[in-house]
Amino acid sequence: MIHEVDDILRGLLTRGSFAGSDVEVTFDAPTRDWAARRNAPTIDAYLYDIREDTKRRQRGRVALRDEQGITLKEHQPPRWFRLSYLVTAWTKRPQDEHRMLSAVLHTLLPKEILPPEDLTGTLAGLGLSIPLTVAGLHTEARSLADIWSALGGELKPSLDVVITAPFLASPDYRVGPPVTEGLGVEVRGADGVPGDGPVRFHSAESVDAAKAEFTTKHGTAATLQERRK
User: Fold this and answer.
1) Residue 101 and residue 89 in contact, taking contact as beta carbons nearer than 8 Å
2) In 10 A of CB 17, how many CB atoms?
């Protein structure tokens, strides 16, 4: 799931404001040594934090159905994880870096929900809406200053991009075949030996027809209760 989110984020940036440019999109840790090797304009989206969004956790089972609505299998609801990216721009001039960060904002701010056509793999198969936030309130346990200190680099302007994605880790549970016949009634003797009569099956349609006939002759349950009074 994480690599799929990486690919989606890369695609959004390269097809957005940086389409046709020579800007490179990477996911490397922006350490001091890495920064010294940069020669081309680069947008770096460093994944610095992964944690579950427990507010989205659900219980129970989810049914997977075919085109006719028949349940094929079941699984537990997916778990949701917040993937936090430290997005920075790298060029020779700070003014150019600021323009690049503005371009990132221009590209990502309209994408409050990731476009369904950009989803791939398991994310596309689940058919769920995946939210994206840009430069929101920093709520992680580690501050950005602590992150830069751990990387050994100098603090610089950055955007905090958070994508909350589902992760399906539940096994599939098998289900029984669909019911195609109604309740069967067979008459047996006192010794348990089946009689000569055939097994009579009562389909849902026949039960509904019997209810309709009874209602026509005797009225609804509420009507019968009023008559008893």
Assistant:
1) yes
2) 18
